[in-house]
Amino acid sequence: EDQVTQSPEALRLQEGESSSLNCSYTVSGLRGLFWYRQDPGKGPEFLFTLYSAGEEKEKERLKATLTKKESFLHITAPKPEDSATYLCAVPSNWADSWGKLQFGAGTQVVVTP
Amino acid sequence: DTAVSQTPKYLVTQMGNDKSIKCEQNLGHDTMYWYKQDSKKFLKIMFSYNNKELIINETVPNRFSPKSPDKAHLNLHINSLELGDSAVYFCASTLRGDRVGDYGYTFGSGTRLTVV
User: Min CA distance, B21 vs chain A (Å)?
Assistant: First the structure.
């Protein structure tokens, strides 16, 4: 069965203290891996899609990388506004049910000044 | 200006009632979804429509019935509400393409349903 596991569950950082979040997956025939950010009381906000091992994407202080078994979201010199829950997701059963995203439980990041 | 809008934002109702949640997108997307986020924050897909055709129907109680009058609208009707239905329900949309991530998935801000 396809699985998406994120670690750690929660991360508390000082402003400027860089760190990485992990998303490991077991999906046959990965078609893409998504990263989302979710703020309290809001819907997930799209950050990146990665398609193949070795691919990297950046957005401001965030950098996502992908290997054959996991993805990392690096937060460089975070600011308090980077506080959010970060979710990764993969589409499963691509051929049978297009666009069915399977989400991990998320990593809750808190950045303190 | 809102890309994916859901109404209502909050819904408090008694067990046994019937309620509906509405979703509309103005992005020109052709595929819409309902996701449920439970108390543990897991997001799970419930339904998906592509151009008004149901394409994903997960193992959801048949008390839940989606309807898509056109590709810009997707509604969710829930009959005989139970305590366990309490959750946040998110609508999302995307444009079906050759690569699933090309156009991203845009989520609404959610409807928090509380059954008492």
Answer: 15
The domain tally of chain A equals 1
Q: For the segment A7-26, what is each residue's pLDDT rounded down to a tens digit?
A: 999 999 999 999 999 999 98
- Cβ contacts (< 8 Å) between A100 and chain B: which residues? 45, 48, 56
How far away is chain A from the Cα of B26, in angstroms, using its nearest Cα? 16
Residue-range definition of the domain harbouring residue A41: 3-112
Average pLDDT, chain B: 90
The pLDDT value recorded for residue B30 is 87
Residues B26 and B90: beta-carbon distance below 8 Å = no
Q: Summarize pLDDT for B17-26 with one digit per residue, the tens.
A: 999 999 999 9
Rounded to whole angstroms, the Cα distance separating B113 from B90 reads: 11
pLDDT exceeds 70 at position A84: yes
Q: Count of CB contacts below 8 A, A vs B?
A: 73
Q: Which of residues 67-106 of B touch A (CB under 8 A)?
A: 90, 92, 94, 96, 99-102, 104-106
In DSSP terms, B7 is beta-bridged to: B22
Output the domain CATH number for residue A92.
2.60.40.10
**Contact B50/A at CB under 8 A:** yes
Residue B70's Cβ-count burial label (10 Å; 0-12, 13-18, 19+) is exposed
- Which residue type is seen at B99? R
Q: Hey, what domains does chain B have and what are their CATH numbers?
A: 4-115 (2.60.40.10)
pLDDT at B107: 94
